[in-house]
Specification:
The complex is a heterodimer of chains A (263) and B (383).
Chain A lengths: L4 E6 L5 H7 L5 H7 L1 E4 L12 E7 L5 H13 E7 H6 L11 H8 L23 E3 L6 H13 L10 H7 L5 H5 L15 H4 L16 H10 L4 H8 L7 H16 L3
Parallel strand pairs in A: 1-2, 1-3, 3-4, 4-5
Chain B lengths: L3 E4 L1 H13 L3 E8 L2 E6 L10 E6 L2 E6 L16 H4 L3 E10 L2 E4 L8 E6 L1 H15 L8 H8 L2 E5 L10 H4 L11 E8 L2 E8 L2 H8 L9 H15 L11 H6 L6 H8 L5 H5 L6 E7 L5 E8 L9 E2 L2 E2 L4 H20 L9 H4 L7 H10 L14
Parallel strand pairs in B: 2-8, 8-9, 9-10
Antiparallel strand pairs in B: 1-11, 2-3, 4-5, 6-7, 6-13, 10-11, 12-13, 14-15
Helix pairs in contact in B: 9-11
The chains are: A alpha/beta (263), B alpha+beta (383).
Chain lengths: 263, 383
């Protein structure tokens, strides 16, 4: 029986997430033994034509060309999984969604007329149907192995949607917000990183995007009691997952308050 | 009561040594990441000498006391359940080969000595013994039981309760009420740190008999111990009125207070993770990519996650108010129906480690003030 065909596509992104597929080291040969890596330009010049059984998509949609291209990829893909903050939320480049892209283009490029760019950076799910989203900036490479394994075995991936706090406590790390007064996005952020930052006495930066039921209002109020301003809250929510809805609403809310209060 | 001994700090060091020499991994309080955690200790010098923990709702700070006390703080940030029921436990693993399916041998249970267990924490272990030992308990808890049976418990009575402590309300402290091998009370007598030590089991008495240089306490020292404990009992940081509490909570399923909690609660699950009696877990089955190796892992879960109540295609407790209500009602009401006692021991961790400082004693009191049991059926209760 032929192995399922795997394709990897890149949109606006840094390549870090798709490279984690090459970074799985011990598991790479195992992956190659259960799927046919048919289209993965970062790994091989050999490109086998579609359709594909499992397609991994990295990056966000930022150009009219990409907005077209993703539809063709969807048509070629039986099961489409987006990987990383760019593909699932628009990425750090979604900060453009609050700014004037024409101004950026004319500032950076000598001939902006050669550019054909959208005014927004949006996640793949805003354009086509997505079968599963793997979060993170970057994704966790073992989580990617789990997603591939789950696909091959025809089951739901074991990827949690609860808060970073659950991982943090399983690890035995005392809460940095409670014991050190360090603002932390952990309570509103999805687990998946192994609660990396709190174990080094840092607050969470929200790399895995909003958790399943984020209460950004109350967390923001707790941050304010620690002396954080509305302006700083805007910056905190506008990170790698700025355009994910709960974080977007929270940052807009605090931006309005910052303006109203003359911060 | 078994025989009471007294010593200075050197005696505490010798006790740790004796436990290590009898093959125990000695676990005790240590300072890490600006908080008290339980970890392996080699001697008395590893204990948080001179530290205290200031605990308020949603706030915890370690501070220097300016004295030489070895036990001048209350409970650690995480409970002892991390050792008896670890956050992640491989229930079994196995490999399939042409010869068939073989399960891997289970590891040997570790032999612990827990040093510096507070009375509420000893009580919490008893609460979980009932849970795991009863017909209602989670199956395949063999490892927990085996570990628990050979764990040596050195309890330390509380003479200075913390800001969020309410063991008196739950009748679990400040003096340990059984379930220990050795109990220690730290007192300051005539300006000296003195440790009153008593055995609570045959194993404990045997360890104490083997120790040299333990003295007989004076009447004054015994009196100082008793008065310190009485003073502690009168100085609890919080109280929880447990009178009729199970019926109160069960009869207020539709109290608007749950909506107010839902607005404040982050559903982050910190309270349940740090709780010494919360035992809910989830089981992950993992299969290697080639399908030859299977692992079944039990992980701490929480009734605050959506996945916890997910069945038939949707979570049964979508709203955060419903999740908090489930937690507190189980802890203080339906736990009694299941196990004949409450699932709370009054350690105060859920209050301290809630990032937004939601206080279980405060919420229970609020429900009591706004008791809806006498309002018409359909408004107040489950009806």
């Amino acid at each position: 029986m032929a192995l399922p065909k795997l394709a990897v596509y890149k949109f606006a992104s840094c390549d870090g997430c798709q490279l984690s597929l090459l970074d799985v080291e011990d598991h790479l040969l195992d992956i190659a033994s259960v799927v046919h890596i048919a289209n993965f330009p970062e790994a091989s010049r050999e490109v086998v034509e579609g359709p594909y059984d499992l397609t991994l998509v990295e990056g966000s949609i930022t150009t009219p060309h990409d907005a077209e291209r993703i539809h063709e990829i969807r048509r070629q893909s039986k099961y489409l999984v987006t990987i990383g903050a760019c593909a699932t939320a628009g990425g750090i480049q979604a900060l453009r969604n609050w700014k004037d892209t024409d101004l950026f283009a004319s500032t950076v490029y000598a001939h902006p007329e050669y550019l054909d760019t959208l005014h927004t950076s949006t996640p793949i799910k805003n354009h086509v149907e997505v079968n599963f989203e793997l979060r993170g900036c970057p994704i966790d490479k073992m989580a990617l192995v789990e997603v591939v394994a789950a696909f091959v075995q025809g089951r739901r991936p074991n990827i949690p949607e609860y808060s970073v706090c659950v991982e943090c406590k399983r690890k035995g790390t005392p809460c940095v917000m409670v014991s050190q007064g360090t603002p932390c996005l952990g309570p509103v952020t999805q687990a998946g990183c192994g609660a990396l930052c709190p174990s080094y006495n840092r607050g969470c930066y929200g790399c895995f995007g909003p958790m399943e039921s984020p209460n950004t209002d109350m967390l923001a109020a707790a941050w304010q009691r620690l002396g954080v301003s509305h302006r700083e809250l805007v910056d905190a929510f506008r990170g790698f997952n700025a355009y994910a809805e709960p974080f977007r609403i929270a940052s807009d809310h605090h931006e309005a308050l910052a303006v109203a209060q003359g911060e | 009561m078994s025989e009471m001994y007294v010593s200075g700090q050197s005696g505490i060091g010798r006790l740790i040594q004796a436990l290590a020499e009898s093959g125990h991994r000695v676990i005790g309080p240590v300072v890490r990441n600006e908080a008290l955690v339980y970890d392996e200790i080699d001697g008395v010098e590893d204990l948080p000498k001179g530290w205290t923990d200031l605990q308020e709702p949603g706030r915890y700070r370690l501070e220097q006391r300016g004295d030489e006390k070895l036990f001048g703080y209350v409970v650690g940030s995480a409970s002892w359940k991390q050792f008896l029921n670890p956050p992640e436990t491989v229930l079994w693993s196995g490999t399939v080969s042409p010869d068939g399916f073989m399960t891997d041998p289970a590891p040997e249970p570790p032999k612990y000595a827990f040093f510096g267990v507070r009375p509420c924490e000893v009580a919490a272990m008893g609460v979980l013994d009932t849970v795991y030992g009863s017909d209602n308990g989670t199956p395949s808890m063999g490892m927990r039981t085996a570990t628990r049976e050979q764990t040596f418990i050195v309890a330390v009575n509380c003479v200075e309760p913390g800001g969020n402590c309410f063991c008196v309300s739950m009748d679990t402290g400040p003096a340990v009420k059984g379930g220990y091998d050795i109990a220690i009370t730290e007192i300051v007598h005539n300006g000296n740190m003195r440790y009153l030590i008593e055995g609570g089991s045959k194993a404990g008495a045997k360890v104490l008999e083997g120790m040299v240089n333990l003295e007989e306490p004076t009447e004054a020292e015994l009196e100082a111990r008793d008065s310190s404990l009485a003073e502690a009992a009168a100085n609890m940081g919080r109280t929880l009125d447990i009178e009729d509490l199970p019926e109160l909570l069960k009869g207020n399923a539709r109290n608007p207070r749950w909506d107010s909690i839902a607005e404040r609660c982050l559903a982050c699950a910190n309270c349940t993770m740090v709780c010494p009696t919360c035992f809910c877990n989830t089981v992950d089955d993992n299969l290697s990519l080639d399908g030859t190796q299977a692992t079944r892992t039990r992980k701490w879960d929480s009734c605050f996650t959506l996945g916890f109540s997910y069945m038939h295609g949707r979570p049964m407790r979508e709203g955060v108010g419903a999740r908090y209500r489930q937690w507190i009602t189980h802890k203080l009401a339906t736990w009694v129906d299941q196990f004949d006692e409450m699932g709370c021991v009054g350690c105060g961790r859920c209050i301290t480690w809630c990032p937004v400082g939601i206080d279980i004693t405060h919420e229970a009191a609020a429900i009591r003030r706004a008791d809806l049991r006498d309002t018409p059926i359909g408004i107040g209760g489950f009806a």
